Amino acid sequence: MNRRHFNKLIAGASVLSGFSFTGFNNTASNYSLSKKIIKPQRLQPGATIGLVTPAGPITEEQLEKTISNIEGLGFKTVFNEKRLLSKIGYLAGRDIVRADEVNTMFNNKQIDGIWAVRGGYGATRILDMLNYKVIRQNPKVFIGYSDITAIHHAIFKKTGLISFHGPVGASDFTDYTKKHVMQVITETTPTLKIDPCRDNEILENNTYHSYIINEGTAEGQLIGGNLTLVASLIGTPYDVSYKNKLVFLEDVGETPYRIDRMITQMISAGKFDNIKGIILGVFLNCETKERNNSLTLKEMLEDRLQRLNIPIIYGMSFGHISNQFTLPLGIKARLNTEDKSITLLESAVVD
Fold it and tell me: H-helix or E-strand containing 158?
């Protein structure tokens, strides 16, 4: 760490001192909450962002990149270096410590928003340790994707708080990514049209190329995230209703038959019954080299999903890719397959 960041870490540690293991209790996950949607306050220039690692471990380089990314957006960063850089195998430290860091950031009045540094694995292990009463009483912008999907769903189910499927702190903050995340978390525009990323269409790798599975227009509340995590939550207290929802899904590094299995599980569990439409991101590295013994990704998706007879599109610019737009879970939106756009029909944040 260079000296500038070292001084920032000391300042961050002092801000967070006195909040250790705030509000954690064994009954937090059973807290009974209303179904009312809660929108966090928009982030303004100079807002203080608390960094968390609720899942997999990070390197110092990833932390440095996160600081540069978020401060480059005009925000300040606060974090506990010891906790962020903790590592126990494939986890960023002990479950109770990772959960407490999230609870602490929500409880700390000096923190305006919370940003996950990376995904990885481990978020599902802490869902019953999060203090949903504290989260509901202290609504804040919370951002991340991949394994962070589990926390998004749990927070939405238990509190009704809108959270944001967007880049993790260590993502590549391209101009496209920065533009779209800032529009969603800092502006209260009543409608926002998200156009496809044209750069994806000219890439040689056709995994990035969009295509329509079923034509049409659909409107509904946005729900979804990483397919692996969404499927893993079925049958748990953190599984959300998909009825009348506009479902968005993405994944990475899974072969077509594995994606088939997860989609089939969702179909069998009735998760796609009475939904409005499906928005698929870029499923990076999800093809197989064994072409003679496998369907292609496109063939599999069409085979499993076309029969649903609802608007479905593949290749929208979110997922484990550089150019990402940000989707607020719980906000009403419209999918239009004709121009391959998504329009947010309400603001995700309030003044």
Answer: helix 149-159
Domains detected in the chain: 3-173 (3.40.50.10740), 192-344 (3.50.30.60)
Number of other residues whose CB lies within 10 A of the CB of residue 290? 10
Q: Give, as one character, the DSSP assignment of residue 40.
A: P
Distances (CA, A) of 256 to 36, 69, 141, 261, 297: 38, 33, 34, 9, 5
Q: Are 19 and 105 in contact (CB under 8 A)?
A: no
In this structure, what is the dihedral angle of CA atoms 82, 87, 91, 95, given to the nearest 10 degrees? Answer: -50
pLDDT at residue 1, rounded to an integer: 47
pLDDT for 317:
96
Active-site residues, by number, are 146, 250, 320
- The pLDDT, as a whole number, for residue 19 is 42
Q: Which two tokens stand for residue 174?
A: 């391209």
Amino acid 9: pLDDT:
44
- Cα separation values, 319 from 110, 163, 184, 282, Å: 31, 16, 17, 6
Q: Comparing C-alpha atoms, which of 114, 118, 122, 79 is closest to residue 98?
A: 122
Q: How far apart are CA 221 and CA 272, in angstroms?
A: 14
Give the whole-angstrom CA distance, residue 211 versus residue 313: 6
Number of CB atoms found within 10 A of residue 238's CB: 23
In this predicted model, what pLDDT tens digit does every residue of 289-300 receive, in sequence order?
A: 777 789 999 999
Where the chain has pLDDT below 70, the residues are 1-35
Beta bridge partners of 316: none
Report pLDDT for 35.
63
Looking at residue 291, its pLDDT comes to 74
Residue 16: predicted pLDDT? 45
Q: Who contacts 320 (Cβ-Cβ below 8 Å, separation ≥6)? A: 146, 250, 251, 252, 282, 284
Instruction: Convert 112-151 into a string of H (helix), E (strand) and C (coil).
Output: CEEEECCCCCCHHHHHHHCCHHHHHHCCCEEEECHHHHHH
pLDDT tens for each residue of 118-152: 999 999 999 999 999 999 999 999 999 999 999 99
Q: What is the pTM of this model?
A: 0.91
